[in-house]
Design goal:
The protein is of the alpha/beta class. Helices cover 33% and strands 14% of the residues. The strands form two sheets. The chain has an eight-stranded mixed sheet with strand order 3-4-2-1-5-6-7-8, sandwiched between helices. Strands 11-10-9-12-13-14 form a six-stranded parallel sheet, sandwiched between helices. Helix 4 links the parallel strand 5 and strand 6. Helix 1 packs across helix 14.
């Protein structure tokens, strides 16, 4: 029986400054227990620019610091797990610059893959700009992880990202979706190559626990309305957060996570505490001290095609969750409190603080839904594709592909 194929993951995030809860990190670190994994940090979708991007200079600086690390093996207990930030020039507006950038990154990635002894690995693509790099790489399979609708990201060149997404939808051996609504919306393009791979949850890390006083020890009074995760201006409804702060002055609003914009708009309220980025190891104890956990999403194309991991993390902790509506939440109706308007959102928070609980039984809710289960599903899918392809007879390095 042939050895399991190794993996190269073109990640949608950066290992060095994004939250480790992201699905790429969770899946790849577990895959590295049985095979070699090269995780390529996000190569981005645009150059941050003043006036168009929030906090552009901070974004550029942290990417420069990430590139300075180049290749590292960050987890001593996983020696076959390598994280790479290639030297890149994210000038996606020029076809010539794009081609140069892709060629340079491809050379860097393939050189590192050879050093790790990889032969026709599985290529797992989350960020669409990686298509320019991955298209001509020898591989056992090419899988597009359609975790988000990146063309809905306002700062990117929409026409370019749409074209890259379409190329990946057309040429990938399989397309993975964590949102059932998203899968169905693109079924005409993907057919039988579409697969639903739900997000998992680290059930040990987010094991249920009583109130920890991790927040009250910081002098934060109850009741505590809490959120942990990325405070991104293209997904989080900051108008709704400000309304909570203003109209529920008797409550503490605690926000945990890195922000892509100034938080002064919220922190000017005396009942708001922004704790900033916290290590993944600290999140469960902090989150368990919320009296109600919230997911205040914007109603936009990005959110309508997503499946937030934090929903399962909140539920695994034993939290009562108030969320704005999005399609995937329909599958969790018995376990969360859903609001369609700002008034409903505030009313649902009030209900939870008064003792209201979602009716669903959680005892075995995540019995087969941890990240180990999801990784096993993924590896079975990848190895099955490679086996059907045979010995590279459909390898894209020999198969002409139309340039986007």
């Amino acid at each position: 029986m042939p050895s399991p194929r190794d993996l190269i993951c073109f990640c949608g995030q950066d290992w060095w400054y994004h939250n480790r809860a992201h699905s790429d990190f969770q899946l790849m670190t577990r895959a590295a227990k049985t095979r070699k994994v090269l995780l390529v940090n996000s190569i981005g979708m645009r150059m941050p620019t003043p006036g168009k991007s929030t906090l552009p200079f901070r974004r550029i600086w942290r990417k420069v610091k990430s590139m300075a690390r180049h290749v590292r093996r960050p987890l001593p207990d996983l020696p076959d797990y390598a994280v790479m930030t290639p030297l890149l020039f994210p000038f996606y507006g020029s076809p010539r610059a794009r081609a140069f950038n892709a060629k340079s990154i491809r050379w860097q990635v393939m050189r590192q893959a050879r050093k790790m002894g990889m032969i026709e690995p599985h290529i797992f693509v989350t960020v669409p700009t990686a298509w320019d790099v991955a298209r001509d790489m020898p591989r056992g399979s090419l899988v597009y992880n359609r975790s988000d609708k990146h063309s809905a990201f306002g700062e990117a060149d929409n026409s370019l990202i749409v074209a890259l997404e379409q190329a990946l939808l057309q040429h990938s051996d399989a397309v993975l979706y964590s949102s059932r609504a998203f899968l169905q919306s693109e079924r005409q393009s993907t057919g039988e190559r579409a697969h639903f791979l739900d997000h998992g949850v680290d059930t040990r890390h987010f094991a249920p626990r009583p109130r920890t006083d991790a927040l009250t020890r910081l002098g934060i009074p109850r009741p505590i309305i809490g959120f942990f995760g990325g405070l991104d201006d293209y997904v989080v409804d900051f108008d709704l957060l400000e309304r909570i702060a203003r109209e529920r002055p008797q409550c503490s609003l605690v926000l945990i996570g890195d922000a892509t914009l100034s938080m002064e708009r919220l922190t000017r309220y005396p009942n708001v505490r922004h704790l900033g980025f916290k290590p993944y190891a600290e999140i469960p104890d902090l989150g368990a001290d919320f009296d109600v956990s919230i997911m205040p999403w914007l109603d936009n194309d990005w959110i309508r095609h997503c499946n937030p991991i934090k929903l399962k993390e909140y539920l695994s902790l034993g939290q009562e969750v108030v969320t704005t509506w999005f399609p995937e939440v329909e599958h969790w109706r018995d376990f969360v409190h859903v609001a369609r308007t700002g008034d409903e959102f505030l009313a649902q928070i009030d209900g939870v603080l008064a003792g209201k609980k979602a009716p669903g039984a959680r005892a075995n809710l995540f019995a087969k839904a941890n990240w180990d289960d999801r990784t096993a599903e993924l590896l079975t899918l990848l190895d099955g594709i490679a086996e059907r392809r045979g010995h590279g007879d459909r390898n894209a390095v020999r198969q002409p592909v139309t340039t986007v």
